[in-house]
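User: My advisor asked me to double-check a structure prediction for Sugar porter family MFS transporter before group meeting. I don't want to rely on an old file, so could you generate it fresh from this sequence?
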Amino acid sequence: MSQNNENTLMIILVSCVATIGGFLFGFDSGVINGTVDGLQGAFKSDNAGTGFNVSSMLLGCAVGAFSAGRLADRFGRRPLLITAAVFFIISAWGSGVSTSSMEFVVYRILGGLAVGAASVMAPAYISEIAPARFRGTLSSVQQVAIIFGLFSAFVSNYFLANIAGSSTAEFWMGYQAWRWMFWIELIPATLFLVALMFIPESPRYLVMSKNTEKAKRVLNALYGDAQGQSKLQEIEASRETQESKPKLTDLIDKVSGKIRPIMWVGIGLAVFQQLVGINVVFYYGAVLWQAAGFSESDALMINVISGAVSIAAVFVTMFLIDKVGRKPFLLIGSVGMTFALGTMVYIFANSGLDANGNLSLGDQGLIALIAANAYVFFFNLSWGPVMWVMLGEMFPNQIRGSGLAVAGFAQWSANFIVTFSFPIFLASIGLAGAYSIYALGALISIVFVYKLVQETRGKELEEMQG
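Assistant: Sure, here is a fresh prediction for Sugar porter family MFS transporter from the sequence you gave:
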């Protein structure tokens, strides 16, 4: 194997370790899907209480995402990922042993801190070690990991519920199946912690911290001696143009006194990714399809199918994003989601009710399932991976940590609002009303991308302006 191939393989392996954080992000987000009935029974919660139990993790996500960028600029990318791994382990164990809503919420918020930190630091870390020619591909592996984590949680939930009889039935050692759904996460969380001990710190962080010798060793290991030296000079030249250490006030343009335009684009990308309602499918998929008249077992199987569709979509993006670019994928996804969501709204709005008050889709049930999976496909072809790729690479070096902090906070805040409101919408305006809101979000996102988003394909991080 040539030296160049060895260096490329090492970059890929290091990136894959970072994306275990994405897998845990997905697993932690998806596992709640199969536990809603168990949580309602164990904690005697109403619609609003259930919404908060499910969405409480997102409060931690918002804080974790906001804090991670700044803390990573101070302590490094790798220590932040290690801390996140520890929090994943504590949260997985604690969520399963909880005996009250308050205890459960505390452990879920801890998990949220880990998810929030991993969501911004894993793509940022990958962007900072990967060369521009395949940075998009490696960064989109993060979304593959997220979706594979979701898929794994759906599969795990499905089998645990079916082996036990239901999510609320006793499983192993006298504990209900829904508790074991959380404990399964201990396996990948521990693997993540161990693997992080073997990856290097980000060379761009090391240069920013004036640890040039260590940065040189890392770059030589990743790129080879000649290219590593050249890359070091590029990063140092970029650092020399910076007036001070990164800080939040760097997000304000010193000439105009206003927030930098690139920051508004980052916030817009982060918020629109949630306003299309995708996490309603990820968090409440079982509830959604039971409300549409399917059994718990069938609803959990639909989640598995959606997870498989998601993985297929992300692989398409992963192989084409560095050839086609970021913006075309976003536009295709927004248009596709608008039509798919519109179809679901039409079917939900024109369906009758059964004796239990649930929607009876009748002959249109198959069309609704196809539309729902088309919606999931278009999201994971576009906004799922591309938003994280762009946030990891679109900001100039000086503001990358701060930009990720603010955009990540906006993303998880929007996620919390959408997730918390869904059970309330379901009870008040029904599935058709809720999905009308998400369809409108997808429609507006078309205009946002077309007018404001700039292509970043093929650019080195040192070239980013804003």
